[in-house]
Records
---
Amino acid sequence: MAAPVIHWFRRDLRLADNLALAAAARSGAPVIPVFIFDPAILRGRYFSLPRLVWLTKALASLDARLGRQDARLLIRHGSPHRVLTELAGQTGAAAVYLNRDYTPYALRRDENIQRTLNIPVYTFDDGLLHPPGDVLKPDQTPYTVFTPFKKQWLALEKTPSVGEPHGCFMPAGGLSVQFGGVPTLAALGFGGDFKAPEASESAASSRLEDFLAQRIGSYSAGRDRLASDPGDDTRGGWSFMSPYLRFGLISPRQVYWAAREAYREAGTPESRRSVEQYISELIWREFYAHILYHYPHALDGSFRPEYDALKWRNAPDDLQAWMEGRTGYPVVDAAMRQLKTMGWIPNRARMIVASFLSKDLLINWQEGERFFMQRLIDGDPAQNNGGWQWTAGTGTDAQPYFRIFNPVSQSQKFDPDGDYLRRWLPELRDVPPPFIHAPWTMDSPPRDYPPPIVDHAFARERALAAFGAARQNQGNAR
Ligand SMILES: Cc1cc2nc3c(=O)[nH]c(=O)nc-3n(C[C@H](O)[C@H](O)[C@H](O)COP(=O)(O)OP(=O)(O)OC[C@H]3O[C@@H](n4cnc5c(N)ncnc54)[C@H](O)[C@@H]3O)c2cc1C
């Protein structure tokens, strides 16, 4: 029998449309599916218990899916270089196949493994429709503005999806190694719990189908509505694909091609516009991945260096109130409590709470970025950094710094009846709609809900002055 090859699963926890896995299968060698818990990530600054729970559920479903082909997922814990070297020795594997990960840590790790492992490592571009380096300006430099990036991205030819490989996996019984299954949180050294939604390839596909059948046609209007349940088509207008894309339970090609099909079937100009907008959001995901690849400094400071001089407030109590959803602004508090419970909040809610932290409280956006990474099941360094810098006004194609969200009017506009607020803030359950967005304006506000932590009009002026001064300092320094 030919020497086996290893497919190292990382952010591609699926069998269908997995480019490295398909190539490993095409090699004709039996494929050993492997996942490695990397202690550098488990102990890293972006560690998140909710995301770890989400990941372990995804691994369990991948293992079960492999089981239908008489295979098992080989799960190990340790430095990937050491684990792969050991596994190659134990199994006689002749090569490793993997899909590239474009974040700075993963790039360094993979480059080292490729250079030093004593068997070949074959790498594939799978996690984006167009990898970094493919979407460049005519002078071959990266785009830092979204609209021209998008135009160029749309003009490039797209790879079709590939099917699920069958009959290529090394039968579990044929390997004299220990399997052990998916470790518990305790076995990985963590306590606590989190209730995650179903994390499987089939859950990802059925959610996408449901979105395409019910909501994509009204995505433009629906995506900003504040609602809690992504499955409720009368309210939330989004797809809830981000957690599945995060660990590759679905591929971006599968989502893109399905959206293109929806475009062909769209019957009205409004539904066609909606599908276009959905595809545009998928391109934002690619844009931010490219930005971080080309400008890794963004992970440690402002993309625009002038804002590194900004005088942020050191206000630990305010930061704590924001984290716990006790700012006295219902829309901010509802979103932060949803984040705690679900490990996910809609894009509009992310923008509102990020603006509140970085502008109203004038607290460094990096505090919020870190907190989001600790909480989000879809937490992704490139997307999260891009979203925070955009909202704080320090990023690439950023929202101008003088645009500051008003938490009351945002709430009135995107949750007019206050249903989202009532769902997450039981203290406000009996407050009628006109007051629920600003309960402090009532004659007798609910006693168990805090007054606003800061006056928005005052905070707005304070933020404008601080951002303006940072820009001016930079101007003087030139
Ligand atoms: C402060 C802040 C932090 C964020 N952190 C993350 C993060 O850690 N991980 C993450 O995946 N997204 C992040 N986003 C982007 C966006 O909020 C989520 O991708 C989106 O809310 C996910 O829900 P959905 O899948 O239902 O999106 P949909 O509206 O259904 O969009 C479909 C897909 O398009 C992509 N997308 C949508 N909006 C954006 C956007 N603004 N930027 C980039 N890609 C987008 C996502 O992959 C998403 O799954 C952040 C945004 C902000 C403002």
Note: The mean pLDDT is 94.
---
Amino acid sequence: MTQAALSSLINHQIRLAARPAGLPTDANWSHTSDAVAEPADGAVVLQTLALSLDPAMRGWMNEGKSYIPPVAIGEVMRAGGVGRVIASKNDKYAVGDYVSASFGVQEYLSLEGADMRRNGLVKIDLRVGTLTQWLNVLGMPGMTGYFGLMDVGQPQAGETLVVSGAAGAVGQTVGQMAKIRGCRVVGIAGGQAKCDWVVKELGFDACIDYKSGPSAVREGLKAHCPQGVDIYFDNVGGDILDTVLARINRKARIVICGAISQYNATTAIAGPKNYLSLLVNRARMEGIVVFDYADRYHLAVAEMAGYLKDGRMKSKEDVVQGLQNFPSALLKLFNGENFGKLVLEVASA
Ligand SMILES: NC(=O)c1ccc[n+]([C@@H]2O[C@H](COP(=O)([O-])OP(=O)(O)OC[C@H]3O[C@@H](n4cnc5c(N)ncnc54)[C@H](OP(=O)(O)O)[C@@H]3O)[C@@H](O)[C@H]2O)c1
């Protein structure tokens, strides 16, 4: 892109304006814009094509210690994404290359030097997967599901695995990989449509609609896990975690991946009441953070891209259009309106 064409571009951004209490509202965001500058020597200018909307964003809006620093007030909201190089003064990147990086909720981003590594800038190959698959099964949620399952869940053929958030980004990878490893797979999801999809399309053995009644999870586990639960991959926490804990087997593994039911709590979050089931069953509960596996992502990508190609795995994305719709789109994660990996399309590829 010529210097004149670059300087005519306006970069629209969404910044964190205030820390939320409970669900984020419009008051938590500010909308800003600035000009796009010519890249310095060694730098690249990227155009955002699509952003990954993640439950973790809610945690990044809070003050306090976590596995990653909070987004500062006034900072462009953090977001992983995929995009295209539109100007380059770096030998490793050519105009037209597709990349994945931490883009932030904005239309353009310049990166140079150490920021390239800090922002996780890597090229992606669209022959391996589509742009949205690179945000889903081949992206951060897929890596979470894969390594959480393999490293902590340690699935063995014939075991029973239960996964909550089953129709979501992480859940769809976990359930399908566990089927490939020979497990009996039971999902937990909100609503009949999501349950039908994981069973009929993804090949799960059963799925429990936790919204169908107050004892749906307890009764569903009794019906669909007659041999008990060997692995529970927990994406939601809260009452569902407690109910599954009551059904685990000896030496069960509980993968603590997330607790979305608690992310917008305005009082102390609810921890598991049934934790003594771990003692009785000599079981283990372990948390995972996906970034710890970054040096092995390529292995999971190679394996799962093969399954996507040969049809053993499917991926479903739920795409919302338009950067300005970020605040409302994010809320879909917390009311279960997203069906599949939630993606915000910012520009067409
Ligand atoms: N540890 C890590 O490194 C790591 C990395 C990525 C993600 N995660 C965690 O993994 C989990 C899933 O993330 P994702 O990106 O795959 O999101 P997702 O499952 O695609 O979307 C979130 C889903 O959570 C469910 N949900 C929302 N509120 C709920 C509630 N109160 N009770 C039960 N379910 C609720 C909804 O599905 P239903 O319609 O089924 O209710 C919603 O669609 C999150 O907890 C996230 O924080 C952890």
Note: The radius of gyration is 21 Å.
---
Amino acid sequence: MESTLELFNQYVVPTYGRFPLVLERGEGCRVWDEAGREYLDFGAGIAVCSVGHSHPRVADAMARQARKLVHTSNLYYTRPQGELAKRLVGYTGHAGKVFFANSGAEANDGLYKLARKFGNEARSPLPRHAAGERLDYAPNRCEILTFDGSFHGRTLGGIAATGQEKVKKGFEPIAAGFRHVPYNDAPELGRCIGPDTVAILMEPIQGEIGVRPATVQFLKAVRQICDDHGLLMMFDEVQCGLGRTGDWCAWKTLAGEGIIPDAVSWAKGIAGGFPLGAFWVRDRTISMKDGSEMSLANLLGPGTHGSTYGGTPLGCTVANEVLSIIEEEGLLANAREIGAYAKAAIEALCSPLIKEVRGVGLMLAFELVADFSERIGDKRAPALALIERLHQAGLLSIPAGTHNVRWLPPLNVSRIEIDRAVAILRAALS
Ligand SMILES: Cc1ncc(COP(=O)(O)O)c(C=O)c1O
């Protein structure tokens, strides 16, 4: 019989650089490989398994709903989808409506369509006079600004939106309508608004580039710039949202209640590993070209967008259960407290190989020093070299770029598990 690696080598399209681990089962913050070896899982499927592996309540809810109704179609109504939408709207704290998809990239694709429809059908603002200059907005605005270092998914829309050249290489022509601008630089963002700009899409905490939070001032400035120019402010909370930072909304962890976005996308942790994505659109009045007014939340009307699997009764039941567990087991508070504990513990290592520890709640990264490879005499990318050593010692962690290692454990990780992980890290670094 072929080994699992042989099966992959022969039959699976090789898009991923995989670590040589074959994982077979999981429980809480731990997973086991085919040989029965145990690992602490501080990747949690890249910020996905928010209540840990094989949570008995999730397994029961999944099995119960699977016996009742797995799938219908969005031609009909199902109770779990309506209840999940209500719950998500509640988490934002503002009136709005939710669309369900299957992944983060797909949720973001919905946001691009929302922005396009807004640009095509809503009335553009009157010409703006500021600082002695005049800006005439195009009648059909279509440009979405995103940020250098951002990541928004691997679809054609996603790679066009993503502010990293490496995801675009070889896939030209890249879909038009996106421009990347520097992150956390409000004056530059202000200068980049052009006649065609219709929306700004940002991660409140950039994940794939190595956990880089927006500053409060920047978040406020983005909202102000959107208000000044009649743009949609759209947040990609696929990685940072729904509890990871210790709040349902990462932007609130950073900036409190003061900022209201126009749209937000989620996926990853929403259903603890069951594939589901979603986006929320704010209920606010917009003026249309034909002189009428409508709610932004109703702009994507019947026939404008859809997904066969989006919001199945099974997926929504699992998400409702996962989110209930986060509520009932106090996991937002746990993410805040244990996250701060973990961050302080990594900092307390005072390792000469760590340049900086970043992050909020249980979305953490430590950046390795520039000359890490020379210091340890290993030519591989520093993050990979360290992560392999952590694997050998029984700890899964996630690379971000060449120099960052991320810890994104389940939100119910305990202090004892953090202590174990930090001990493994200390030994690996020394
Ligand atoms: C911020 C962000 N947006 C979008 C995505 C894409 O999500 P998915 O892989 O579910 O398509 C990711 C995935 O890492 C992400 O981190």
Note: Residues 46, 103-105, 108, 151-153, 203, 207-208, 236, 238-239, 267 surround pyridoxal-5'-phosphate (CB under 6 Å).
